[in-house]
Amino acid sequence: MYQIDKERCLGCGGCTITCPKGISIGPDNKAQIIDEEELIKAGGDNVCPYGAIVLEEEEEMEEEASY
Ligand code: SF4
Q: Which residue out of 24, 38, 50 has the highest number of ligand 1 atoms within 8 Å of its CB and is therefore the one to mutate?
């Protein structure tokens, strides 16, 4: 499933213009996915020129907690 990398997201709103049904800008001024099907139709991770839309694997990925 797609997720927003909030670190990379600038809140520019470009994705909401490309994909108004799939993404909106949330209260934190970052993009949030509201409809993944629409996002996929609009191009998925290509919708964000800054690489803030990322495709995560379905299965849980073990995050390396290195702190
Ligand atoms: S996800 Fe990308 S296009 Fe959308 S607001 Fe964030 S930086 Fe802009």
A: 50
